[in-house]
Amino acid sequence: MLNKTIQLFFLMLVSSLFFFCKSNNVSKQNTKNNQIITFQDKEITDKVYNQDKSKVLILQYTSTKNPAITFDYQVVDVETNKELKKGIFTGEKMEWLDNTTLKCTPHIGMVQKQSDEVLLESIPTKKKYIFIKID
Predict the structure, then answer these.
(1) Facing residues of 98 across strands?
(2) Hey, where are the domains in the chain?
(3) pLDDT tens, residue by residue, 76-135
(4) Is the Cβ–Cβ distance between 55 and 77 less than 8 Å?
(5) CA–CA separation, 4 vs 10, rounded Å?
(6) Which residues contact residue 75 at a Cβ distance below 8 angstroms, ignoring those fewer than 6 apart?
(7) How far is CA 100 from CA 8, 52, 77, 80, in A?
(8) Alpha-carbon gap, residue 73 to 47, rounded angstroms
(9) pLDDT at 4 > cutoff 80
(10) DSSP secondary structure of 67-123
(11) Alpha-carbon distance 118 to 116, whole Å?
């Protein structure tokens, strides 16, 4: 008798879970949940002065989800508005090193090494900078 009561109780529990635990209808279109996430590209122009504020570095680039940025740079003398240097650099960052030199950080993606090289190498990989001299 006790065994049949337990079986009946278990059957009622399973059937109630089956009938009363329903998920939302998949075909319903909810406007709050159907928002599309998009990445927007932004055109950015930055002006960076050197240490003595005699020259300005004008950077024009597009902000995307890509870590490598293509900078369209221009160095202008502040007093005469004369363009001293102009070019394109692809990397992570451009900044002034001193009054006459730009320090450019190139983008280094993942570097694949053999497993023995990683274990034997005690010095971490350093970033190599590119220096652009402004005359």
Answers:
(1) 101
(2) 42-133
(3) 999 999 999 999 999 999 999 999 999 999 988 766 665 555 555 555 556 689 999 997
(4) yes
(5) 10
(6) 55, 56, 57, 58, 83, 84, 85, 86, 102, 134
(7) 88, 10, 11, 16
(8) 10
(9) yes
(10) SSEEEEEEEEETTT--EEEEEEEEESEEEEEETTEEEEE---------HHHHHH--S
(11) 5
Question: Which are the contacts of 88, defined by CB distance < 8 A and separation ≥ 6?
Answer: 70, 71, 72, 73
At 8, the pLDDT band (50, 70, 90 cuts) reads confident
Is the pTM here over 0.90, yes or no? no
d(CA 46, CA 74) in angstroms, rounded, equals: 11
CB 91 within 8 A of CB 67: no
